[in-house]
Amino acid sequence: MDTDREPSRRGHVVWINGAFGAGKTTVARRLAQAVPGAVIVDPEEVGSILRQALQPVSPVHDFQEWAAWRELVAATLNAVVHQLPETGPRMVIVPQTITDEAYWSQITASLDPEFQVTAIALHVDRDEHRRRVLEDTDEPGALRWRLGKFEHFREATWVRAAFTGIETSALTPAEVVDKLYAALGSEQASS
Description:
- It is built from eight helices and five strands.
- By secondary structure, the chain is of the alpha/beta class.
- It is globular.
């Protein structure tokens, strides 16, 4: 992997989308290791905070339904990128499944217009997804949720048009990061 390429100094948000259990967090961690100074922001944490405050008074099935979640995710990404040292890559990596196009549009429209946004989607076939979910030791309690939401991600056809896809079924996490890094490099060359 060529780590000499410099991500944008103005700020770079790399959003990694994919089915729950597809490997987003694993890939995000490896990418952050490959780009010194890059940080990970997990929008699930924003959802956890809001769940405590809003669920009792404004219950939803998924915290992404709250406009407050979308607003706070964008505000958090803006604040984190601006807080990063000017001398570093100013890259924020976001591992988060998003299947509602309107939600995606709201978040990206609220990001600093100077930021470069790279939208990557990890695609995995059903059998490989099931294997990954069954072997996960970080969140074994999420098994049923991840398996149940797999088709929902695949049905979000807009993702294939809005995100650069990486087919990950036959790839190791390191190979996925190499492909993602190559996508970042080609984006840098074209901007």
